[in-house]
Amino acid sequence: MNDPRQSTLMSDAETPSPLPYTDTKPVGHADFYFATNATFRFIQRNHGEEALKKYWRDIGTSYYRPVALQWAEQGMHGVADYWRAFFQAEPGAEVEVIESGDEVRLEVKHCPAIHHLRDHGRAIVPNFCQHCFYVNEAIAEPAGLTVRNCGGNGTCTQRFIKRTADAAPQNLEDIATAS
Amino acid sequence: MIGCYDFCGHYEWTFEWLRTQGGHDLVRAYWDEAIHQDSQLHASKLIEAKGIEGMKEYWGPTLADEGAVYERTVTDDVFRIDMHECPSKGFLLRNGLNQYTDYCDHCMGWIGPLMQKAGFVINHEHNHCGQCWWEMRRAADATPPSQPGKLAGKGDVRLRPDWKSPHTDHYARATDPDDKTTV
Predict the structure, then answer these.
(1) Confidence (pTM)
(2) Would you call B35 and A35 a contact, using CB atoms and an 8 Å cutoff?
């Protein structure tokens, strides 16, 4: 695959956006969550859970590579900036981004995807919330960071911390089944 | 998290990922099973139940929410869209994203099987630059596609000076994403 562009686009005439890909609309179209959920279901049904995890890792290392480069260059401040801009563009998201010197913590109070899928009676892929761990971990690793998630199914905590040898691995049982 | 703001970017990336995993057949199956039958089941239900009226109900709000610049022409026999600024392809062009061979094929990939099931056929052409036109007619209706400007008037996308640049892909009475010819 080609490398996605790595330059930072401008969200307006003056301010560069922390998001690598920008649109003319300020907020995305929530029905696209239907397609994301359906994509996970299609890959898992046809090729199994490991293929779905590979998809999540691959999209993190390839499509989101500009984000990893930004985090590597800007450190925790870049991580926090990215997530603030990200959730500002997701319809219905309520997320607090808490930045400290050695950690960025996302307190997701209202996950826009889970709630939109649920509000429209869509069958949510049970391991939907694991995608946040696998995708974000694939983005974080080349930036020298790692991710630990807890909760899910509408509310969760996601911690972005320095990658160290003694960090306990993510326990997937800490990530809730979605419904 | 995979968000909806840049959906068209990772959607297009996913086509190429699927192609590398399982070839063209897997991409076709994805458009039909995941998009037509799962993601867009609300569109399927509307159009199968109400035909052209269902197309109006589906594409009206959807294209508005996506930020499309388009013209719609509807009679009792045909549902026509002239897309002047496709929000989806426009996003890819502005962001320099071009992983898959022809992103525009995805529309026929999911709308084609939907229309076949609902009893319609499609005349369609896209120019890979964010412009396209569609005419949906009942499968039993042998009326050929309209000539430029005859049905949609000045809103006909084929009247744009940049329409033919650089080339177009054309579908005639089709419901299959592979039934295209390049003009």
Answers:
(1) 0.94
(2) yes
